[in-house]
Amino acid sequence: MVSEYSQRLERIAAELRRSRLDALIVTAPPNIRYLSGFTGSNAVLLVPADGEAVLYTDPRYEIQADEEVSCAVKVSRKPLLKAVAADLARRRSLRRIGFESGRIRYADYLSLREALPASRALEPQTDLIERLRMVKSDAEVEAIRRSMAIAAEACQKVMASLRPPAREAEVAAELDCQMRRLGAEKSAFETIVLFGEHAALPHGRPGPRALRQGELVLVDVGAVLEGYASDMTRMAVAGQPNERLRRLYRVLLEAQRAALEELRPGVRAGMVDRAARRVLERHGLADCFVHSTGHGLGLEVHEAPRLGKGENLRLRAGMVITVEPGIYVEGWGGLRVEDTVVVTSNGCEILTPLGKELIVL
Is 248 helix (H, G, I), strand (E, B) or coil? Predict the structure, then answer.
């Protein structure tokens, strides 16, 4: 991975030179990890267009930084942005300084601006590193694949023993526990377990509701391994499904299949979303799908690209994306099937190692 971090830093430095910037101040923890390998919670990374990157952190992370990072490390007892500003003031060749405008607090920006000499220009940069992160390396895809395997195994274990009158919050807690037992660093997000009409809330929070016979179960779960997130959703029903549920679930699988068939390099992200929506429109369910078809994931569980209406970004091999159409009916419940996939040279590969048939409990 050391060589991979070096290559990423070189690519960012080349982008800075093309933009005629002398350096970039990186403050977002996922971007710092992507460029340096540092996993601590307090750091700033200075990336010059020419020269070695420097990671700034505090004494709590001195040993950790030495173990994780191959670039230069500076340990500071004062606020890190002030330490960066002090070094920039001394390095007169660094005059046009980029910063992550969407990732820095306004108060921190003002503090940085105040600490820098007037001769230093702060230039806002948007998604400079995030654009590079969209296309994953083989090592990144493998980390996500293993993360996905953990989430899938945990889901399978918990579903096998799920019966009424289990409670939503208890099942969510058991999923989190199983993922940690299987080697996950943590859950990728707040695990979602919803029963019955509660499942009509796409991102509802698990509560004390007890599962009743005949009710739907929606489970949305993901793990983090080596910093990389996974994401999947599966459906179950307590007892034999009725005809309405069977019909809606068939339509949902058809919509997801249409989206998956559209996934390949060169296709605009919005066209994948459109493929899923066409199926739902054909069955009179267009108004029941209230979110985008998918999102990128990696060091963050929601990152570019987004599979949504009007998204013109063209997909590239190596992008890892969720595909998750849904059908939500207030007062009845909701259905969603979600897989994590990687775009390949001629289509896509599903990384979720778990079947998506409706599970009968």
Answer: helix
